[in-house]
Amino acid sequence: MSSSLLSDRRKPHQWQFSTMLRRFHIDPLLLLGLLILLGAGLMMLFSAGGQDTGIIIRQLVRIGMAVTVMLAIAQIDPDRLRDNAYLLYGFGLVLLIAVLLFGHEGKGAQRWLNLGFFRFQPSEIIKLAVPILVAAYIAERPLPPSAWRILVGLVLIGLPAFLIAKQPDLGTAILIASSGLIVLFLAGISWKIIIGFLVSCASAAPVLWYFMHDYQRRRVLTFLNPENDPLGAGYHIIQSKIAIGSGGLFGQGWLQGTQSHLEFLPERSTDFIFAVISEEFGLVGVAILLFVYLLVASRGLYIASQAQSSFARLLAGSISITFLVYVFVNVGMVTGLLPVVGAAAPDQLWGHVNGDPAGRLRYPDVYSYSPKDDVTVKKTLFSSLLLLASIHVQANDQLPGVDAFIDKMVTKHGFDRAELDNVFDQVDVKDAILKAISRPAEKSKSWYEYRNIFLTDSRINGGYEFWQHHKEALEAAEKQYGVPAEIIISILGVETRYGQHMGGYRVIDALSTLAFRYPPRSPFFTSELEKFLVLTEQEKISRLDPVGSYAGAMGLGQFMPSSYLAYAVDFDGNGYRDIWTNPTDAIGSIANYLKLHGWVPGQSIVHRTQASKPLPEAMLANDLKPAFTRQQLKEAGFSLSQVPAGDDVLSVVGLTQADGEEYWLGRQNFYAITRYNHSRMYAMAVYQLAQAIREKMDKTK
User: Fold this and answer.
1) What is the pLDDT of residues 445-486, one digit of tens each?
2) pTM
3) Catalytic site residues?
4) Rounded CA gap, 695 and 691, in Å?
């Protein structure tokens, strides 16, 4: 047995933390990035809030509430989110309409619903409802979406965005619309549509200006030239730029910012927190923070790429990119690269200091209310954590159903749960495997194309050389099992080129990918995964090291795990069944497999025939098992001149050549070969390669 396959078992306590995270559907790297952002947010809140420990305590309470909600949402099955997308969206629309009809109004803004014991903004629900619904709707049909579905998607996005803009809250409306548009972008709409949409938006800018409120117009004008009113509308952005610039390369130090602590910087604990970070930690600190932002979003996109459905991929991708959009908007606003829209950065988790819980700037014509109204969590904290939770809900489980599978292995076979949790934590789902399994050569090629892959001089010569090197083992196998040496060699040649190409995928990766991510054959590969884990236990080999084909077939003879357990033999008697590095064991195992699948010693395999009249559909459509008597075949117009005398039933084998169909009559031994791979083309390739190898061997005697 190869030393590389020996088991390396570690203690269960080493996996307890990872097991706990997996049970709560939490991605460790995503959690790490989030904890870093939480820590940075609390640090900066302490500084910007005047070193008030009460603010930190209140913020920790909010964080606890938000994390609790995040964990709860992370337990929701993605399919349930998809199924309830329309209900959530409709509920959000009803609330938005309620805001317009009888929402709490103050100083020109009507954005909150007052339920007596607390106030909240329905737009927070829509922030999740829009991408969920658009992803669910677009994923109902194959991608990319049709023009009609794109149009409907735009309507679904535009309706809540319009209602929110009417409050007025143009910034939130734009951000919500962006989350839905990102779903459409990820769905694969053509660049022509994208460019046309952007041109239309640019053309509509003058019209949009006409419908904007006065304070919104002033924000745009201030963005273009804040120095026009340095003590009025431009004051905030000018002070923000001063704070950013004063930080230099390494900053003035934590708690040492002058612009913020001397109260030149407005809303330093909410919208302008980024300026405080820049002043105290400088360019280096800001770069590190932005890098963590990027890591969180990148991890979200990676998780999205591993999701098992179009809905999950679209939603998780949208949320991940929307997270970056929030960062870009806030940083762009504070640095003067974008107009002010009142969107707080999604990591800093700031408390409601100075009576601005909505995170809006203190323009005199924009509604604000006092800290006594702060009875809910900070909306930016709430939204950002829910978004990250949703990313994980949709995509963290690369192996849906693995927990139930582990339960079965523990109950049925006595495996250690923590150890299996660790094994599956290390599984790498391979998209290449899913692509390969969907287009095997037996189904994508005609016989004449398939034959040319295997009937080559290199395979024939390789078979001849293998025969020379392993003559004793082949003779012993033929004597014990009755299977000719050339058939055994041919199978080795077709499967792995005599051990040269045994596959490049870890068996655990291949079987897990197909068991949990390939529904058409999930039951089969789940069973094979179970057998693989059992055989690693029996044979004392590593669960992670063995490699094989994209389908999980292993060793020189490409045995599936169930075949390994049932048919592999220790043919050289050394105490191990090693089909990876021991050709003798591989030879005996293949011969044993064929014998136990009905190989008849001394019987021929398959014979060429001709048909004198059109063939009945029933004969062409039959399965591989021999089923027709010789009399039936004669009556159907087949010639049996090359078939040895006998009373056994035969099968009809039709193969497509470049110039038309050819027909063969298969006997029991041909059927036995098809048990190795359920394909008549495979069996014929094995037969013809075996004949060519035997012919070369006979010529050299």
Assistant:
1) 889 899 999 999 999 999 999 999 999 999 999 999 999 999
2) 0.51
3) 495
4) 6
